[in-house]
Amino acid sequence: MEDSQTPGVNPIPVQQEPQTLQFEFRGNGWEFFKIWIVNTVLTVITLGIFSAWAKVRTKRYLYGNSYLGGQNFEYLADPIKILKGRLIVGGFFVLYLFSGYVHFALPIIFLLILVGLTPFIIVKSIAFNLAYTSHRNIRFRFEKDYPEAYKRYFLWVFIMVITIYIGFPAALRRFYDYLFNRVKYGDTKFTFKNTESLYPIYIGAFFLNIAIVVGLGLIAGALYFVVSMLSATIAVTGAAGFIAVGYFAFIIAAYGASFYVYAVIRTWTFEYFARQLFIDDIRLESHLVASELGMLNFTNFLLILFTVGLGTPWAIIRFRRYTLEKLSLVLPSKEKLDQFVSSQSKSESAEGDAAADIFDVDFDFGF
Amino acid sequence: MTYEWKAEYFAKGSSKATPCTIRVLGDQVFVEVDGQTHRFPLGEVEVSDRLGNIPRKVRLPDDSMVKIEDHPDIDELFGTSELNVFIHWLESHRYAVIIALASLISFSYLFYFEFLPCSAKMIASVTPQNVKEQLDKSVINSLETLKLIEPEREALIERDDYKEFIEQQLEKYPELHLKFEVIKGEEIGPNAFAIAGGTVMVTEKLIEKVGSHVYVKAILLHEIGHIYHNHVLQNIIQRMGISLFLFAVIGADDITAVPMLVMSSAYSRDLEREADHFAADALIGYDLEPSLLAKALEELTEDQPESSDTEKQFDSFTSTHPLTEERSEYLRNYQSSRISKSDQSRQDDDDDQTLKEEVEP
Ligand SMILES: [Zn+2]
């Protein structure tokens, strides 16, 4: 591949400059559509049994086409384990549905059990997904800490509830801190510095949202005023049509704006990660542009809507390509990627539990 | 056939990619890397499944790995699973994809309109009576908790106008465990509904609104039809089946936020027709016109007032039983096809004259 040295040429020692390595996505919409539709049909005709295999194939395709430094990622989960997890959830769901007919309080008890298990399930899912993600024959890992997860989860859910979600950015920061400081790539730990608050991002997004809605409202109001002034002179039906179109345009614009605000949050969050998150002496660089990402998500939404879901694979490919290729790593030297090790054996890396995949809490780097 | 590839080698626990050559000869795999040759028995080597054209990973018994760019000969050489070869064949052929698309659409159609109602009907028909009664108890319980019906309800059989009619029904369908109750509260408007175990509830408001007892009885017969054909349970099972199906197919998948299908609480048109059919037959048995039911529903829908919030919540009888033109036409034409038979039934059911006398005093 590209980093193999030509034999016979004596490399002149040069001072190592930091290297920027961009992520790369080689997936293709039509190819992915074929995979997606075949797997969907197999899922349907097997009454859902195949869904576990479909999920693994989908993720394998997306991971397998995500490249860094000429090497692709891998998703290695065993569909049987995912199927077991889904059967457990399905059974729970059936019990939940029926329980209401036996006694009206039973569904509430089921929900309470679910709430009590939530931190466990989240941690388990993260660990499962990471343990089966691999790059260059090295797997990721998650160091589970259940007591800490329970403490943080219930404390911060409580704080969020009593502060009517004003505590959300603080809670999210605690979650990132818990998550990223327990991730390992082989034997190498991730470091999340946790020195910066998330409030600037969410307060900024909040005011941006208000400004957009007020701005759109003012424009709509001004247009309405102009049209109603003109309607005295031009045909009334024409004016009514114009107002209807204007109203429709306002709704679309307001909806599009919500995509933009979401994209702004994601963009700022990735810049935040770039400042906070390190793998040894490797750092992250994000080149996301909020307006591009917002437009991408908006057009993806329209694509899915107007194809009754059949455009979904293309939407996924577009999203992955954009978000991944706007991400790069800054390494001290090009050889850095060759130097990771894992002392873990194959059996140690297996995340055995069946119910691991319940919520599909996917931890991946935005792809 | 190719049996040798230029590839990349990753030693156990190392992220370093080293150029190598991998060769399959007989039942042995040879990996040549840095001038050394490693040999492994083919049976202990695992190859990742073919998917799109992502690189294939050959996992060797010593936890090292070889990455080969995808090649069609790999599967044959390494002997990977037939099933995966077949799935990949499907995924890479245009016609297979078109067939998949067509079958997806037809399967969804068949599942929703044929398989699900049919299997729900079967399950409903084998459900024992005590399960249905258990179900009823909880339904009644929640209706009482929501204050939609009052806990003390009058039995309709206590009313002289209905006594004989109800006794006839109880005698005719002992296996249905029928029970008729009147709801006096105004919460759910003019309404009548059946629950699984055989209880039919009718509101005082409905009785007032349709005016004639014959009309009320026509509506009651329609409700008995729902019980006779097990529709209540069938409906519950069907809706559960749909949510389970949605859960299995699209349920837990991340980005595919497919707009969820809106499920109506009303019976399907087929079930309504079946209940209408039942009521029509029963009316003919009384030597009455099946169109009576249509007239009863017309009375009910006439100058319908703005429904209150609770009514909307509960779905009043008229909104879950819309009197469509098609339905009313069906009821009006029903008799003509049965004329010859009704002559016979007049002689059979001598004691079924009560209804007729009421409507033609
Ligand atoms: Zn009905």
Description:
The complex is a heterodimer of chains A (367) and B (361). The relative contact order of chain A is 0.14. Chain A has helices spanning 29-45, 51-64, 79-102, 106-131, 146-162, 168-180, 199-230, 236-276, 290-306, 312-325, 346-349; strands spanning 19-25, 66-68, 71-75, 133-135, 138-142, 183-185, 188-192, 277-279, 282-286, 327-331. In chain A, a hairpin with a 2-residue loop joins strand 2 (66-68) and strand 3. Chain A is built from eleven helices and ten strands. The two termini of chain A are 24 Å apart. A ten-stranded antiparallel barrel of chain A has the order 1-2-3-4-5-6-7-8-9-10, surrounded by five helices. With 361 residues, chain B is α+β, with helices and mostly antiparallel strands. Chain B contains 14 helices and eleven strands. Residues 251-265, 339-354 and 356-361 of chain B have low confidence and may be disordered. At the A-B interface, helix 1, helix 2, strand 3, helix 3 and helix 10 of A face helix 2, helix 3, helix 4 and helix 8 of B. Zinc ion (ZN) binds at residues 222, 226, 267, 272, 275, 321 of chain B.
Domains of chain A, number:
2
Number of strands of chain B: 11
Estimate nothing, just give the exact number of structural domains of chain B: 2
What sort of overall outline of chain A do the alpha carbons produce when their principal axes are compared?
Answer: globular
Secondary-structure element series of chain A? EHHEEHHEEHHEEHHEEHHEH
- Please tally the helical runs of chain A, counting DSSP H or I stretches of 4 or more residues: 11
Radius of gyration of chain B equals 33 Å
Mean pLDDT of chain A, rounded to whole units?
A: 83
Instruction: Look at the helices and sheets of chain B and give the structural class.
Output: alpha+beta
Structural class of chain A: alpha+beta
Low-confidence runs of chain A (pLDDT<50, min 5 residues)? 1-9, 352-367
Give a quick account of the main beta sheet of chain B: strands, pairing sense, barrel closure.
7 strands, antiparallel
- Quaternary form: heterodimer
Radius of gyration of chain A: 25 Å
Largest sheet of chain A: 10 strands, antiparallel, barrel
In this entry the ligands are: zinc ion
